[in-house]
Write a structure and sequence with these properties.
Number of helices of chain A: 5
Radius of gyration of chain B: 16 Å
Largest interface: A-B, 46 and 59 residues
Strand order of the largest sheet of chain A: 3-2-6-5-4
CATH topology of chain A: Beta-Lactamase
Structural class of chain A: alpha+beta
Number of strands of chain B: 8
Distance between the termini of chain B: 8 Å
CATH superfamily of chain B: P-loop containing nucleotide triphosphate hydrolases
Strand content of chain A: 15-25%
CATH superfamily of chain A: Dynein light chain 2a, cytoplasmic
Shape of chain A: globular
Helix content of chain B: 25-40%
CATH class of chain B: Alpha Beta
Oligomer: heterodimer
Number of helices of chain B: 5
Strand content of chain B: 25-35%
Number of strands of chain A: 6
Structural class of chain B: alpha/beta
Radius of gyration of chain A: 18 Å
């Protein structure tokens, strides 16, 4: 049996659709600017909101970093982790909530939206996303079924081609 | 763990450069950033102190384009090397798929290398991952320094490479061994997907 922590998390198309619907509802119901779902490693799983953000990759890495860092603070305070955090700016605010130990939900909103509403609706969304995560974890699709068996060889060729002086 | 988004047909992997303070982790990322084709890389993001020491992490996203229909992304991170920042290193290691351990080849740094590698093993294990199976590649950096100040490769192997990982001699400032290391860890991570 392979160490489950070393296998990939494969998110199927139908679950991505559910995640996107959930984020779209959250943005609409709160009047937020943007919502995104991150993996704890900082990778963006899905996002919804106004326009295309060019900086979304950096945003994902930084928010996941902040969250991982606050978890270490929590441990020093003998707290398991901080389930949510709030960052207040002059124009924009960010509310971040943890889903199980795996995903991070992040909502960016301006002063037109009340933080209380964001908190309540985020709680509802995290419950929904937690059940998506549970289903994703339960499925046992083989990697080859998703990627195709020749993927590794092709990938190695690409690595040789791109990663050189 | 790597993330495979079937709808967007994307694969994301996280690689962390680990090692003692001033061993050349950021230098590795800077060299990679300076050399990869423009359409492959994103901006290099650094959270550093005023004196250019890493405070939180450096971050370099690389996009390898489509392979068999899947867009593959590698996100490279460094940790802050100074002993003070152990908890920060734990935070950056979170969710990593592979690690490059950069060792400083200077004699005076040997103990720091050993301590840092022990700490890495501890931190990987704390994430409920099996350190023995975890993808790791070693880089012996600064091989261009005068030979009387350097630890011989065989000695580095003896003290750091008990697990028989792939290891590369390097001079990160000029790029020697940097891409060799990156190719090795990337392939290792892909093999464990």
């Amino acid at each position: 049996m392979m160490d489950p922590q070393l296998t990939s998390l494969i998110v199927p198309t139908e679950e991505i659709t559910k995640i996107e619907e959930c984020l779209a509802h959250l943005v609409e119901d709160t009047g937020s600017d943007y919502a995104l779902l991150l993996d704890k490693s900082g990778q963006v799983i899905a996002s919804k909101g106004d326009g295309d953000r060019q900086d979304i990759t950096s945003l994902g890495a930084l928010i996941a970093g902040v969250f991982a860092s606050s978890r270490e603070v929590a441990k020093l305070l003998r707290e398991k982790d901080f389930r949510a955090s709030f960052q207040q700016g002059v124009r924009e605010n960010i509310f971040i909530a943890l889903i199980e130990e795996q995903w991070i939900l992040c909502i960016i909103f301006n002063k037109g939206t009340h933080i209380g509403l964001v908190k309540v609706l985020t709680k509802k969304a995290t419950d929904e996303l937690a059940s998506v995560l549970e289903r994703v974890r339960q499925q046992h699709k083989a990697r080859d079924e998703v990627l195709g068996s020749s993927f590794r060889t092709s990938m190695e060729d690409t690595i040789d081609l791109l990663f050189r002086d | 763990m790597a993330l495979i988004n079937v709808a967007a047909r994307e694969i994301h992997c996280k690689i962390v450069y680990y090692g003692p303070g001033m061993c050349g982790k950021t230098t590795n990322l800077k060299y990679i950033h300076s050399q990869v084709p423009r359409d492959t890389k994103g901006d290099l993001l650094s959270i550093a102190t005023e004196t250019e020491r890493t405070l939180f992490f450096d971050f370099l996203p690389l996009e390898l384009g489509k392979v068999r229909g899947f867009l593959t992304r590698f996100h490279l991170y460094t940790v802050p090397g100074q002993v003070l920042y152990e908890r920060t290193r734990v935070a950056v290691l979170n969710g990593a798929d592979g690690v490059v351990f950069v060792a400083d080849s200077q004699r005076q740094k040997m103990q720091e290398n050993i301590d840092s590698l022990k700490e890495l093993a501890r931190n990987i294990t704390k994430q409920n991952k099996n350190f023995r199976d975890f993808p790791i590649v070693l880089q012996y950096n600064k091989r261009d320094l005068p030979s009387e100040t350097l630890v011989p490769i065989s000695t580095l192997d003896k003290y750091l490479n008990g697990m028989n990982w792939q290891r590369f001699a390097a001079v990160a400032t000029t790029g020697v061994g940097v891409f060799e290391t990156l190719r090795a860890i990337s392939k290792l991570v892909i093999s464990k997907l």
